[in-house]
Amino acid sequence: MIVVTRLNATRFAINADLIERIQENPDTVVVMVNGAKYVVRETMEEVISLVAGHRARVVSLARQSVPSDPPLPHR
Questions:
Q1: CB neighbours (10 Å) of residue 42?
Q2: Which of 44, 71, 53 shows the shortest CA–CA distance to 16?
Q3: What is the pLDDT of residues 2-27, one digit of tens each?
Q4: Domain ranges across the chain
Q5: Contact, 40 vs 24, CB < 8 A?
Q6: Distances (CA, A) of 15 to 8, 22, 31, 57, 65
């Protein structure tokens, strides 16, 4: 989830994996795969950065939770 801000300054979280596209005209509109649209204060670049950061955290957490391969036996 990423946290974004509506034009009225209220904050809410959206599932970054369900974003279909982001538009600027001039307001930033986040369009979800189900067709829902959210107008947010963040710029397109900021939303993209939030999504990238979210995905990086997911990958990092996944790597931390997977044990490393055991060492190979010496022959």
A1: 17
A2: 53
A3: 999 999 999 999 999 999 999 999 99
A4: 2-64
A5: no
A6: 20, 14, 11, 14, 22
